[in-house]
Amino acid sequence: MKNNSRTHFVVVGCHLGVPEATFLFNTFRDMNSLEELCIDCQGNLANLNDDEMAGCIPSLAACTGMRSLELNHLNLSTYSFAALRGVFPRMATLRELVLRGNSLDDDCTRLLAQGLSDCNQIQWATAADTPWIDSLTLGPAMKSNNFTHFVVEGCYLGVPEATFLFNTFVDMNSLEELLIDGEEEGGVLAHLNDGDIAGYIPSLAACTGMQSLKLSYLNLSTNSCAALRGVFPQMTTLRELVLSGNSLDDDCTRLLAQGLTDCKQMQSLDLSDNRISDNGLEALIQGLPASVDALHLTRNDITLARHVLLLRFEVLNIGGNRLCPGGTGGIAASLADPECRLELLIVNQCNIGDEGTAILADGLRNNQRLTRMSLGDNDITERGWNAFSSILCDTASINATYNSNHTLQDLGNYRISLRCKIDALPQQRQGQEPCCGDQDIAGLPSSQHETPLWKGVGPVAIRDSMA
Q1: Which of 96, 102, 4, 3 is nearest to 44 (CA)?
Q2: Which one of 87, 123, 143, 360 is at 20 to 30 Å from 36 when CA atoms are compared?
């Protein structure tokens, strides 16, 4: 292990007691070429206390070329951060620091800020799975104009913490990715209301190079979306926007669409786990830039009670919305339209049933774009699945088979295999070539086990993609 040419070193899922940690960290004394180090003991694999880790950390001072340092789930606390404070000045090239699942408190953040003050190249900071962000002490370290990525997950956010955090972004015009997620298992860590967040959002106007913005489970609603509408024109390079788990309604979608008008590079919008209905969906379809080709609206209030054209997106996820009895008719009409661009459609848990499945299948008869459709958890029986038989491989005639849908490859947990057998087709003349031969759309070997999707139609089968 004492190889001075090593540049990357990863220790994940290993038990670390005092003997193992002592040996491991002593090894780093001879690795001044090390550029990336990741030690992650998630799952209570680190049988070390803070003081013991503090005794190991000074060995990292030899790693003067370190660019990425991850020390996760190692019980780091005050003593360890005091040791890191002494090491960081030797790591002038440090760009990424990740300290997940430790025991940071206010004293730790002060020590962290002091140690990072000379790390002028740092670009990516992750404060995840830590209980607290100190609202006063991180300033010098965080106000780095070199940050390109910033992640805050699993952290308590009240008014003082959020005020400090968002004020920091005023000096980060290099920021390209920002993720703030206030969700944790069993609850939400953001103790902020819509008005509070609306007051912080203007700070993001300085982030003119933003490419990915994710603000989830922060109680955003109308006021916050109005503030975002004023910020988005400054983010012309924005490609991905995620505002999941908030309180967005139809008025919010109109505000967002208005603000995103000039974001011509925008590709993906995720508004899952909100309160958006058909009106909001229509506002997004009509108002979003033409560049947006992926829309995620999982678990909202969409019913498709009226006809809404879903032609413009390549990816549409409306899973978890309870569609009305005629809701699948609108989807089928869109799928049947020659201008439909959909390649992936997710309609899990949408109350579709057998009748809705038959309607969707009929819409796919002449579709040549959709390759994947997820239909899980819709109470579909064998009768419902049988609706796909004549669509995917119609054996009524050679022309019918030729004109069947050969584009669809995946139905959720199942992949489709089409095997057009010569003896299943009426032959116009002896020795005629089969129209599509022995074709396996899913790309799986023909010897793999097949489970019939419907009875009586030999050429068509599905395979469990998990097999």
Answers
A1: 102
A2: 143
**Residue 124 near residue 95 (C-beta atoms within 8 A):** yes
Q: How far apart, in whole angstroms, are the C-alpha atoms of residue 349 and residue 334?
A: 20
Q: Is there a domain that residue 50 lies in?
A: yes
**242 domain-assigned:** no
Pairing of strands 414-418, 410-411: antiparallel
Q: Would you give the DSSP letter of residue 446?
A: T
- Of residues 442 and 212, more confidence is placed in 212
| pLDDT, position 145 | 54
Q: Which uninterrupted H or E stretch holds 216?
A: strand 212-216
Asked if residue 438 lies in contact with residue 414, where contact means CB atoms within 8 angstroms, the answer is no
Q: Which class for 314: exposed (0-12), middle (13-18), buried (19 or more C-beta within 10 A)?
A: middle
* CATH code of the domain covering residue 32: 3.80.10.10
216 in a structural domain: no
| H or E element in which residue 384 lies | helix 382-385
Is position 346 within any domain? no
**How big is the CA angle at 294 (ends 387 and 273), to the nearest 5 degrees?**
85
Buried-state track 248-277, b at ≥16 Cβ within 10 A, e below 16: bbbebbbbbbbbbeebeebbbbbbbbbbbb
How far is 417 from 419, CA to CA, in rounded Å? Answer: 6
Mean residue pLDDT of the chain comes to 83
The residue among 357, 356, 450 whose CA lies nearest residue 411 is 357
Half-sphere exposure at residue 411, Cβ-oriented, CA atoms within 13 angstroms: 20
Q: What is the pLDDT of residues 54-69, one digit of tens each?
A: 999 999 999 999 999 9
183-184 and 187-188: which strand pairing? antiparallel
Give backbone dihedrals phi and psi of 281, rounded to 5 degrees, phi first. Answer: -60, -45
Tokens of 28: 């780093």
Are the C-beta atoms of 150 and 175 separated by less than 8 Å?
yes
Supply 321's token pair: 């919305």
Task: Provide the domain limits for residue 110.
Answer: 1-146
